[in-house]
Write a structure and sequence with these properties.
The protein is of the alpha/beta class. It has two domains: 5-154, 3-Layer(aba) Sandwich (Rossmann fold), CATH 3.40.50.720; 157-317, Lactate dehydrogenase/glycoside hydrolase, family 4, C-terminal (L-2-Hydroxyisocaproate Dehydrogenase, Chain A, domain 2). It is built from ten helices and 14 strands. It has helices at residues 15-25, 47-60, 74-78, 102-119, 133-142, 157-171, 205-208, 211-233, 239-254, 299-318, and strands spanning 5-10, 36-41, 65-71, 83-86, 125-128, 152-154, 178-179, 182-184, 192-194, 199-200, 203-204, 256-265, 277-285, 288-291. The strands form four sheets. A six-stranded parallel sheet has the order 3-2-1-4-5-6. It has a three-stranded antiparallel sheet with strand order 7-10-11. The chain is globular, with a radius of gyration of 19 Å. The structure holds nicotinamide-adenine-dinucleotide (NAD) and (2S)-2-hydroxybutanedioic acid. (2S)-2-hydroxybutanedioic acid binds at residues 91-92, 98, 131, 158, 226-227, 229, 236-237.
Length: 325
């Protein structure tokens, strides 16, 4: 029997976690032979609801779940943690942009960065889901100076999955035949869904798909999909966000040769500013991610990538005092 893996999930009584926790507990993240300990964090007013989630978890009788820790103590939630899903944060409402949440949510991520630094495993892998995800991940990593910045990532996998699904629908093909989608930049309306490297079977996607549809329909659709869901559901995406979080962390932990989009600490690849969390095309092996290098970028792509970089630099400027720089 393998040693149990410690997994922290914040915002554990919220709507994303209501899907995420149960899928992780069933083995969809680390596999059906990996026992787990769930370390669930809520704010104090959320603890009653969290106790209900814990009762339901128990009622599922998942064989992989060895222990469930429910707490409002940040250090306890991250104690020896090896994987952290930072979900807990306020979601946006209709008419808001994700960056409007910056001031409301930023303090959460500086506190949690410190707790990760003090209490977690030095090998922890962190995924920030709470919005604005890229800049929150930057805040967390800057408050965890003893942890390598490469261990903090932000979620753009939902955008990646959205683009993949839209393309598959458009050409009447299966999603698995659509490869090498890239989301560049911020998880925001400036993100750039790039199809210039996308393949459908052995054909280039842009040889099959009409350029007008790509530029005037697909790009805005993916950029605005979160808002469209809020308008339709009256609440932000939850099951699809949980699904993307599992995709992201599973690929990172267990490896993938596929091109996957991940918000990672920029090393300056493709001329992107260093020291921001920017979504790049990545592959993962041995528990690490690598940015796919040497892709050719046309002027259209370069301009779109810059727009998103500019927004991330503005967001960084707005929370400079939380960065410990
Ligand atoms: P929700 O309001 O249903 O749940 C959030 C939970 O977090 C609540 O239970 C709340 O009590 C808890 N919480 C708040 N502050 C906390 C703290 N300091 N520590 C621990 N828990 C805390 O929201 P949700 O729908 O689950 O969304 C959570 C976040 O994820 C939002 O910011 C949302 O915008 C974001 N999101 C991101 C993506 C993405 O693709 N990156 C996708 C969907 C949603
Ligand atoms: C999403 O993309 O669905 C989430 O980031 C929620 C939102 O605010 O759009």
């Amino acid at each position: 029997m393998k040693k149990a893996a410690r997994i922290t999930i914040t915002g554990a009584a919220g709507q994303i976690s209501y899907s995420l926790i149960f899928r992780i507990a069933s083995g969809e993240f680390l596999g059906k032979d990996q026992p787990i300990i769930l370390q669930l964090l809520e704010i104090t007013p959320g603890m009653n609801a969290l106790s209900g989630v814990a009762m339901e978890l128990s009622d599922c009788a998942f064989p992989l779940v060895k222990e469930i820790i429910c707490t409002d103590k940040v250090d306890l939630a991250f104690q020896n943690s090896e994987y952290a899903f930072l979900v807990g944060a306020r979601p946006r409402g209709p008419g808001m942009e994700r960056k409007d949440l910056l001031q409301a949510n930023a303090a959460i991520f500086s506190e949690q960065g410190k707790a990760i630094n003090n209490s977690a495993s030095k090998n922890i892998k962190v995924l920030v889901v709470g919005n604005p995800a890229n800049t929150n991940a930057l805040i967390a990593l800057k408050n965890a100076p003893d942890i390598n910045p490469s261990q903090f990532t932000a979620m753009t996998r939902l955008d990646h999955n959205r683009a993949q699904s839209q393309v598959a629908d458009k050409i009447g093909s299966s999603v698995s035949s659509v490869e090498n989608i890239i989301i560049w930049g911020n998880h925001s309306a400036t993100q750039y869904p790039d199809l210039h490297h996308t393949m459908i079977g052995d054909k280039s996607a842009l040889d099959i798909i009409n350029n007008d549809w790509y530029k005037n329909e697909l790009i805005p659709c993916v950029q605005q999909r979160g808002a469209e869901i809020i308008k339709a559901r009256g609440a932000s995406s939850a099951a699809s966000a949980a699904n993307a979080a599992i995709n992201h962390m599973r690929d990172w932990a267990l490896g993938t040769d596929n091109c996957v989009s991940m918000g990672v600490f920029s090393d300056g690849s493709y001329g992107v500013a260093k020291d921001i969390i920017y979504s790049f095309p990545c592959t993962c092996s041995n528990g690490s991610w690598d940015i796919i290098q040497d892709l050719t970028l046309n002027d259209f792509s370069k301009e779109k990538m810059k727009d998103s970089e500019r927004e991330l630099l503005e967001e960084k400027e707005a929370i400079q005092e939380l960065l410990n720089d």
